[in-house]
Each structure stands twice: as C-alpha cells, then as structure tokens.
Amino acid sequence: MLATLFVVSFTMTAFAADPLPSWNAGTTKQSIEQFVAKATRQASPDFVPVAERIAVFDNDGTLWAEQPIYFQFLFALDRIKALAPQHPEWKDNEPFASLLKGDVKGALAGGERSMLEIVMATHAGMTAEEFEQIVKDWVATAKHPVTRRPYTEMVYQPMLELLVYLRANGFKTYIVSGGGIEFMRPWTEKVYGIPPEQVIGSSIRTKFELREGKPAIVRLPEIDFINDKAGKPSGIYKFIGRRPIAAFGNSDGDLQMLQWTTAGDGLRFGLIVHHTDAKREWAYDRKSAIGKLDKALDVAKKHDWTVVDMKKDWRVVYPFEKE
C-alpha cells in the first residue's frame, strides 16, 4: 500500500512539474502552456469560465496516424474481403473487383462515387449494435500494414498528454473528424478518454424498427452528414452548441474548423500538427493525397496559429517508443 501511494504521489508530482513530458522545450510547448495558464488563472484578463473551455480535435493525422491511407478505409477493405463470399458479383463489378485484387488505386479511380459505394457496402445493412461489435472486433485484432502494431497504438503520445492536460484544467475535449462517427465511438473513450457523446463525425442514415419483436436502430445505405471541411463548424454548432476556444488539426480539411474557432471573441488557440518526421512517422504536406496540408499551412501564419514541427517538437511520437 505504501509503495502504491509512493508511485501515485511520484506520478502526480512529475505531472505537476511537466504535464507534457513528450513535448520538447521550445516555443510550441510554451504556446500551449501559456494558453492554458491564461484561460485558467482567475486573475487573468483572458480567464475563461469552465463551461466555455471547449477544445475540439481532428482525429486522422492529429490524434492518430493516417498513412499510408485512412484507417477506416483499411477497415472497409477488410470488410469487403470478409463479405466477398456473399457477393460473387463483386468479382466483376467496380470498385469491388479492384479491391479484391489488392488494387486500391484502381478502386478509387471512380472518385467520391466509388468511396460511397465501398462505405455503403461495408457500413450499412446491420443494426447499430452489430456494427459497433464489428468495429470493436476489428480494432482488437487488425494491425497497421507498415508497423504491424494495433491501430490503437498508432496514436500520438504528445497528443494523449495534451488531452489529459486540458481536461485537468477544466476543458471538455471533443473529436471532430471527417471519419465515421460510428466507427470512432466504440473505442475513443478507452484510447483517448473521450466518451462517445463527445465524438462528432460523418454519418449514414439510420431508422428505428422492430426486429423479431425487439427495438433496433438499423443502418441505412444513405449518407446523412459529411463532417469535413466546411461541415466541421456546422457539426460543432449542431452538436455542441458553443464555439470552441481551441481547435487542433493537421490538414486543409480542418481549416474551416480552425478559422471559425479562432475568429471568436476572447482568448483563442489554434494548432496544426505538421508531419515533418520521415524517420519516426511520415513527412508530408502540400502534395499528399492523404492529409494534404497546403492552404491551412499558409493561413496559420496569418492567424498566428501554433504549428507543430513533429520532428523538432515531439520527443516521442507513439506510446510504444517508450517501451
């Protein structure tokens, strides 16, 4: 018991001394700490009441990796393979024929239409509970194609610390992602400490019906809401009802969320994760097909947003680097 108390006391002391140990000392880390100090210090002219301390985070490329392709697409690809025996027609129909041959580029040649067909075929037709279990099973067993680590280990250790740091200072943290809301909700609380009701994402339509006499929410093959780009501020307004005071992203898909957040009155904070570390992660920005960071990188300078240089600012990238 004494040993346990010592460990807890030591951990709390260490956290108090440096709540962001995976962030290297420098202007980036200082900007975060100064923002939190201003927001929480009672005597500060920038003090923000607890109810207004809302922070929103993109997911792909901001809280976890997104290369070589979005993880939810890899989930859909695995679902296509699992469902293929029930759909012999897929061998001759695109985009499924290309996917079954391992030709992802060919499958996506049809653009948004192909993506929608893939999502509808793999994400609809079952109850909400059935889909949730499918996601949980996949997250528990699937491995990243490059690192061979579970996808939930491909999260960024510095961002995990940032989430804890903000919540310890009275912030309510939300995920606002272009990814599927039903894909994220089954695991975000365990991985990020963010409960399902604080996750906003793209969604498909659902309906209530009785199945074998039991009430169920059934997933339909129809798009309900795309929570990306200009859709992000709309989603925040619709589901949170308050303008955040802090927004965190990594791509042009987060631009409007950052613009809307930092345009409000009072203390504001915007941060962009710039992927600059080709050795520990991936280096990409303006020309990337995944997580393109072009216009937002230029706008960041104009609005004085904090830009994280991953190679320089992060002592470690993933939690498993500390093993």
UniProtKB/TrEMBL annotation:
Signal peptide (from-to): 1-16
GO molecular function, one term: hydrolase activity
Keywords: Signal
Entries under SUPFAM superfamilies matching the protein: HAD-like
Listed name of the protein: Haloacid dehalogenase-like hydrolase
Species this protein is from: Candidatus Brocadia fulgida
